[in-house]
Amino acid sequence: MKLYAITILSALFALIESFALPRIHSTRATNLLHRHDAILPLNNLLDESVVNTINTTSEKQQSVLSALIDNNDSASRTASLIPILGMLTGLTGVLCYRRFNCFLHMMTGCTFRAATSLVEGSWSAAALDVGIILSFITGTACFRLIETKQASTTFPLPLAVALSSSTAFCLSDLFYCQSSVLSRLVCPLLAFGFGILNAFSTTVLGVVTSAATGHYTKIGLGCAEAILLGENKNAQTSQAYLKGFVSSVLLVSILYRQLTTRWTGLIVPPPLGVTLALIYTTVFAWYSYGFPFLNIRWKEMLNKKLR
């Protein structure tokens, strides 16, 4: 139990650090609004022409500061989204491995299993793995269709991605308790949803969130750069992702073990697909809109500063 407690505390600390540090580095301009001389330090952030424009009228001050706050809040949410997605990858990885004995959010293992099953003549297992791979590819193609359609609307792309993948997740729960034929659609449906999510993170965020191999590579390169050049600028994103990912894997593994041994019959686990749908929809809704209360509070503070 002591080992479990230490592991849980370490994982929670890593998660808090992953979410807090990106926000600290990206809220420099926003924190200036808490000071009475908030307008003057903006000279260090904006060029001379913009500063002169700010000093012209209070309306222009409000416009520039509002844009600065909005851009800063968006950058802060993006920096926090990466470790959150890493945490969700760890969650789905543990649950899918425990329940289906495969990783449905990355296709490397499914490719190995499909090839091995073909060589051994296990056609049923090979067909399932090939179906998972094709479903994942179809999900990535579906993201491109969603992205193209959303370009002509005002509906946020991240939320459209979350709703589309959540539909596949919920359908997987619908088929999970059905006949043996329909139950074989559970893994392909989950892979389809993960394909949409992975295509979004790769295309929009520029970060692969479905696997950790590339991030470990960047960590190694960053260590070499720190030794040779004295600085490490390229591994910060990977560090944040891995902290969320590894911490989530540890926490979920411990909780799953307790749930299946000591807490059996006491706690009924919720459906996997619905749980993933709720989590991803909530996260992407926050990423799209932020917290309305905080946005209103910032506007009120801004108006008081300009009076």
Describe the protein's architecture and organization.
Helix 4 packs across helix 11 and helix 7 (157-176) packs antiparallel against helix 9 (186-205). The model is unreliable at 1-9, 11-16, 18-46 and 64-69 (pLDDT under 50). The protein has one domain. It has helices spanning 2-26, 28-31, 48-54, 58-100, 108-120, 123-150, 157-176, 180-183, 186-205, 213-229, 236-260, 272-289, 292-306. Helices cover 78% and strands 0% of the residues. The protein starts with a helix and ends with a helix. By secondary structure, it is mainly α.
Number of DSSP E strands: 0
Outline type: globular
- N-to-C span: 57 Å
Sheet having the most strands: none
Number of domains: 1
Secondary-structure-derived class? mainly alpha
**What fraction of the residues are assigned to beta strands by DSSP?**
under 5%
Output the number of helix runs.
13
- Write down the secondary-structure element order: HHHHHHHHHHHHH
Radius of gyration over all CA atoms, rounded:
23 Å
Average pLDDT works out at 77
Q: What are the SSEs and their pairings?
A:
Elements: H1 2-26, H2 28-31, H3 48-54, H4 58-100, H5 108-120, H6 123-150, H7 157-176, H8 180-183, H9 186-205, H10 213-229, H11 236-260, H12 272-289, H13 292-306
Helix pairs in contact: 1-4, 1-11, 4-11, 4-12, 4-13, 5-6, 6-7, 6-9, 7-9, 7-12, 10-11
